[in-house]
């Protein structure tokens, strides 16, 4: 059986595979929600080497990096190679009112979970309102003594 080789089709296939791999490695799907007095961030990092996961905070920028290394079996003929390899990176600018010095990070089953507490000064609090006689005693200054 004769096969016809079309160099343009082959180049198109290789280029599409490379571009798809770059796009896939650049994305890091995530979920973010608030649960009481902390935020929870789940980031999908399937196949990432746990030792390469790095979480940094610089001012108000949270940076997450991880790496998936390529398999290097020798004497193997690849039939399909669609899983992206390389470095994943994502940066998030976070608002004020978070305790960034108390972030907890865990990695389990390909999911990185960050728990970010709300700072004490940003938590809702009740302000007591003074009324009646209590208000008059607080508002009236003490008379100065003539010694």
Automatic annotation (TrEMBL):
CDD domains, sorted: ACD_sHsps-like
Domain SHSP as annotated: residue spans: 21-132
InterPro entries with a match to the protein in the record: A-crystallin/Hsp20_dom, HSP20-like_chaperone, Small_HSP
Similarity remark: Belongs to the small heat shock protein (HSP20) family.
Name of this protein: Hsp20/alpha crystallin family protein
Organism annotation: Cellulomonas xiejunii
């Amino acid at each position: 059986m004769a096969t016809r080789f079309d160099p343009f089709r082959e180049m198109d296939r290789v280029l599409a595979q490379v571009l798809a791999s770059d796009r896939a490695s650049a994305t890091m799907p995530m979920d973010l929600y608030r649960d009481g007095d902390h935020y929870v961030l789940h980031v999908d990092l399937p196949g990432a080497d746990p030792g390469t996961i790095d979480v940094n905070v610089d001012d108000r920028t949270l940076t997450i990096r991880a790496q998936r290394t390529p398999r290097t079996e020798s004497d193997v003929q690849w039939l399909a190679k669609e899983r992206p390899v390389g470095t994943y990176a994502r940066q998030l600018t976070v608002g004020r009112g978070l305790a960034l010095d108390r972030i907890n990070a865990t990695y389990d089953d390909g999911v990185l979970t960050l728990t970010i507490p709300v700072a004490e000064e940003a938590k809702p609090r009740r302000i007591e309102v003074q009324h009646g006689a209590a208000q008059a005693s607080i508002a009236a200054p003490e008379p100065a003594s003539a010694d």
